[in-house]
Amino acid sequence: MRILYGYSNCTDKTYNRIVSERNVHTMVPDQKYHSLMIKGFSKNGAEVCAFSGLPINRAVTARKLVREQDEKEGNATFHYITTLNYPGIRQLMIFFGAFFGIMRTKKDKETFAVCDGLNAAIAAAFSFACRLRKIPCVAIVTDLPDMFDSGRLRKKASNFLLGRFDGYVFLTEYMNEYLGKNKPYIVLEGHVDSAVSDMNQEASYEEQTGEKIVLYAGNIHTKYGIGILAEGFALADIPDTILRVYGDGDYKEQLKKLCDSHPNIRYMGRIGNEVIVREEQKASLLVNPRPTAPEYTKYSFPSKNMEYMVSGTPTLTTKLPGMPEEYYPYVYLLEDESPDGVAAKLREIFSAPFEERKQKALSARRFVSENKSNIVQSRKILDFLRSEFENQ
């Protein structure tokens, strides 16, 4: 099987080099998502031909000409589109680079296309070129255009482009209901790195020193419930327990003030993904306090939950509407989304013996490793493509 893949990312090696001039070398979610998906396709024996406009803009580099050498990793070949680094011009060059790349690429019976449906230039190129070449083209939809904080024209254009695909990969069932495209689709909440699943887990701080670490890593915006978590943790007042918060966002200054009055709450700043993964493995509890009331939570499944569960550390999360019930036995559920509710839940969790909490975490790790790894999830997409489009 041959997969034409469209996005604006690259190999992890090239990505790390591109962002090396930044002070903090964090990996953005779409880089991780698509990189793992391509590796999954490759591990399943598919030949992947990826077309990318690269994750570069004026904020990343002052270079006027953006050009990178094509790369090959395993069964995947990465074609990087040369562009001028100016808004508008860059998008046009990405469109034409991807469009003509698809028009020139070889095609056999089992050739399918998969692309980031929210990347306007790539989505437009793939939808037009694949239609001309009669290549079934599926969009990966990780968000809804109507939920963007953007102008009306951009939302209309994004919705128009989404309507031109032959099928979809959605994060939640609600996405299909909202868009109402009446086309083939598959729901995949996300995926975990199969390589992380195979890693030996480090001993936790609790095992080493008796100190229990509650950890949050991600955007620390007020709307994501980080304030409720911090206030609830302070109310819980559990001995030998520390809350560590990693990330950046509009709640940062308030969090720093809270840290001044509560020494067991610590703001750790922003650090790289590799360090975060190690710290998650050594914590006693990982928390995602995202409120469930906002409409957008029906159309998202936080990659954070997947990352938490594969770490082998217990996870506490709100009962997000986009999270299927099959996850419920493997996580602690926060249903009272108030500081008092957080405090009560933390006391309940830490009243349980360490081994009981550890076994729950290990069962979560087995669940996502066996059912939600990038190799498993990409195989589901390959099966979906064959069953829905092979005879078209």
Strand residue percentage: 15-25%
Characterize the largest beta sheet: strand count, sense, and whether it forms a barrel.
8 strands, mixed
- Provide mean pLDDT, rounded: 92
Radius of gyration equals: 22 Å
Any low-confidence stretches, pLDDT <50, length ≥5? none
Oligomer: single chain
Helix fraction, binned, reads 40-55%
Classification by helices and strands: alpha/beta
Please tally the helical runs, counting DSSP H or I stretches of 4 or more residues: 15
Strand order of the largest sheet: 4-5-2-1-7-8-9-10
Question: What is the distance, rounded to the nearest whole angstrom, between the alpha carbons of the first and last residues?
Answer: 15 Å
Strand tally? 16
The global form is globular
Detailed description of the structure:
With 392 residues, this protein is an alpha/beta fold. Helix content is 42%, strand content 18%. The protein contains 15 helices and 16 strands. It has an eight-stranded mixed sheet, sandwiched between helices. A six-stranded parallel sheet has the order 13-12-11-14-15-16, sandwiched between helices. A two-stranded antiparallel ribbon has the order 3-6. The relative contact order is 0.12.
